[in-house]
Amino acid sequence: MEQVRASGNFEEYRRLSLLLIMLSFAINSYKAVGFLLSDLDEHPKRLPRFVVVVPSINRQLFDLWFTLVYMMDDFGPRSTLYEMGAYRELRKQIDEHRARD
């Protein structure tokens, strides 16, 4: 990561940052599900009712993995499209929120 940043190639740094963020999110979600479903110990923060969030976490995890598989085919252009789509959706939500106020 430091080598890419030091090279001054902003586009490559942006792509690598996006990939690392997505992978970190996926790993964290996987570990959270593992913690919630574990029966190895009686951790005071693990409540049986928390298991109801596992399907939604798994859905997010699958969406993320499928997005990564799609993007890895041609990562540069597809990561740009992914970020621009996210920006458009955010802009749309902000405009709708302002219109309601």
User: Count the strands?
Assistant: 0
Shape: extended
Integer average pLDDT: 86
- Main sheet record: none
The secondary-structure class comes to mainly alpha
Overall tally of structural domains: 1
Give an account of the 3D structure.
The structure is a single chain. The chain has one domain (2-100). The protein is 78% helix and 0% strand. The chain has 4 helices and no strands. It has helices at 2-7, 10-37, 54-72, 75-100. It is extended and about 50 Å long. The chain starts with a helix and ends with a helix. The model has no long low-confidence stretch (mean pLDDT 86).
Topology:
Blueprint (H helix, E strand, L loop, with lengths): L1 H6 L2 H28 L16 H19 L2 H26 L1
Based on the model shown, name its key terms:
single chain, 101 residues, mainly alpha, 4 helices, 78% helix, extended
Summary, kept brief:
With 101 residues, the protein is an all-alpha fold. It contains four helices and no strands.
